[in-house]
Amino acid sequence: MLQWIRSLAFVALSTIAMPIFGLVYAPWAMFSLRGAYVCCKSYSRFIMWLAEHLVGMRCEVRGTPPQGGVLIAAKHQSFLDIMMIFQAVPLGKFIMKKEILWTPVIGQYAKRMKMYAVDRGKRGAAVAKMLEDVKAGHVEAGQLIIYSQGTRVAPGVSAPYKKGTAALYEQMGQTCVPVATNVGYFWPRRGLYRRPGVAVVEFLDPIPPGLPRDAFMTRLEQTVEARSDALLEEAKSGSAGR
Predict the structure, then answer these.
(1) Which residue ranges does the record assign to the Phospholipid/glycerol acyltransferase domain (predicted)?
(2) Which of 50, 146, 154, 201 is the most exposed place for a label (fewest CB within 10 A)?
(3) How far apart are CA 73 and CA 121, in angstroms?
(4) Is residue 3 a contact partner of residue 196, using CB atoms and an 8 Å limit?
(5) What whole-number distance in Å separates Cα of residue 239 and Cα of residue 117?
């Protein structure tokens, strides 16, 4: 019962804090891209701090977050992995569904930071548009972050990897950094309960450019899924952080 009360308090404070951060940083963010990034990173740090001190959920980033221009192909389980990845890299730019741009605060800051929005209802056209913008240089330098399964997937649940990741990997000719996670065990995609423990986002060994599409996708999926499953077992056993 006490953990439920803490969880509800955490959700309430997280929700209230978002517009407050957005308004406080708005004058800077309106005229400065750096201001927008500082706002979102500050909010992410606050949420991770609040999670640890209010619900006992410690957020841990493992591996080596990339600093230069790369494609980051990540496992997506909840809003928490978005914040943890964004906080860990200097200039993260998410490929996100277009509907997010209409979300209060998040949408305005996503536009200001030039996040890349696609229409998931037209997947083939979305991939083609991404490739066109890559060629035209509309996707700016930084760490381009794509969720290879296209949506949040609960821990331990199988879902296919979308072809857009392979297309971008091939077209951009950049190193791809896979990212595994177990955060959905602590912060589920649905529901208000927040579980105590160590939520992990782990940057894995980079995949060099130049692999054939099928070989790349096989390596990416096997690497991310195997490590995410291992992190899930670690979370269930309570061994993380000991």
Answers:
(1) 70-184
(2) 154
(3) 21
(4) yes
(5) 38
- Count of residues for the chain? 242
Q: Let me know: does 72 contact 212? Beta carbons within 8 Å.
A: no
Give dist(CA 81, CA 119) in Å, integer. Answer: 22
Residue 78: Cβ within 10 Å count: 22
Identify whether the C-beta of residue 241 lies closer than 8 Å to the C-beta of residue 198. yes
Residue pLDDT, tens place only, 43-80: 999 999 999 999 999 999 999 999 988 999 999 999 99
The string of pLDDT tens digits covering residues 14-27 is 999 999 999 999 99
Q: pTM for the complete prediction? A: 0.90
Which of helix, strand or coil describes residue 163?
helix
Instruction: Give the amino acid at 91.
Output: L
Is residue 89 within 8 A of residue 143, CB to CB? The reply is yes
Q: Cα(156)–Cα(48) distance, rounded to whole angstroms?
A: 23
Domain residue spans of the chain: 58-237
